[in-house]
Design brief:
39% of the residues lie in helices and 16% in strands. It is an alpha+beta fold and 178 residues long. The strands form two sheets. A five-stranded antiparallel β-sheet has the order 1-2-3-4-5. A two-stranded antiparallel sheet has the order 6-7. The mean pLDDT is 95.
Amino acid sequence: MSTDFSPVPELNQLKEFQDRTGYEQYADGFGLDAWNDTSGLEAGWSKDPEFLSRLLPFARATGGGSFYALWRVDDRDDLSTLPVAAFGDEGGEYVVARDVRELFQLLAFDSEISVSWDSVYFYRDEEDEHSAYHDEFVAWLDEQFGLAPADDPDAVLEAARDEFGERFETFKNAFLNA
């Protein structure tokens, strides 16, 4: 079992769950990767040390290579309370959750995130099958944190955008449009 995946206790707990169930087996397209591996950011976004120091990549978001990173919006000590940003493998970058636990609720919706230059969203058809360990993940989320899956992922995305969207745009544009 992995207990030191990251300095974020919630992510360490999820890593232990993932070690039991498998990568991409409990949430569509999702899997924890190496903590703070900035190679994806450097390859597709910016090599600027200030940019890289403010983002902490930790997970694959889609089968195509999109990924999640914590955004150091400020100097808070509790990294689990940092907003979560998604970076699309074909472009686009957005704050998608206000903290790690909110991301877990989005993951429990069990739909791969769609990230493009123009939008970010989760979509799940009624006929879509759940991931192999979806039910176990939903039970784990309730047992560990007293949380349920997001009923309306758009509302979660909107709340994150309302709280952090403008600041994230300003932050990323300082590096990506320079």
